Fold this sequence. Notes:
The chain is 51% helix and 16% strand. By secondary structure, it is α/β, with parallel strands linked by helices. The protein has one domain (4-186, 195-200): 2-enoyl-CoA Hydratase, Chain A, domain 1, CATH 3.90.226. The strands form 2 sheets. Strands 1-2-3-5-7-9 form a 6-stranded mixed beta sheet, with helices on both faces. A 3-stranded parallel beta sheet has the order 4-6-8. Helix 1 (28-43) links the parallel strand 2 (13-19) and strand 3. 47% of the residues are buried.
Amino acid sequence: MQGTVVTTTNNNVTTITFSHPAHNSMPGHQLKSLTAAINAAGENKDSTIIILQSAGDRTFCAGASFDELAAINNFEEGKKFFMGFANVINACRKNPKLIIGRVQGKAVGGGVGIAAAVDYCLATKYASIKLSELALGIGPFVVGPAVERKTGLSAFSQLAINATEWQTAQWAKDHGLYAEVLESTSELDERLAIFSSQLASMSPDALGELKRIFWAGAENWDTLLESRAEISGRLVLSDFTKSAIAKIKAKS
Length: 252
């Protein structure tokens, strides 16, 4: 199985790095590993702050694995796959520690959802975003609550409907998804090192209370995201979606 999730802890900062050779796309086993890593980081007594990032240069996360999407043959398999993204988002939501996102490049679909699920997101100017699910006959149902929570309903609606065009990193910042946009990866990493070190020196209790306040009102997301995964799990079986995925795979 391709794809890895690696966790390191230094100076009270835990860094979780996911990677996959297909533009950091997410197969089911990697979503499971990422969920476990986020949960474990939340329980790590040697850590105050969590950084969530991907490997590589210009792609943060290409979203769902097309190989796995193409292989889904029934509703149960479909729901299980999309629950992978639901579980990652809920792991971020429930984590008692603040999670800082490092988005060095493009984010698509589920990748936008991961960026939206962190508490503070740093990005480069190359970190364009797109919710491409509607073009596949599905829709950004699972990631929707996380994206809408950060950007508001209007901006989320624009992303969901305009499924074939990229929005710039500046657009994402203007609409609340990114907190800061840097000129280069080197500037991003320099800023991230300073910022995470500052946060790691602050009161863990105060940081935890902030986290609880930030996520107030999302307590129903266990059931909400499961219901959204059921929608996607049903739609992924449609002839439209099967055809759309086959066309994309034929071009790759």
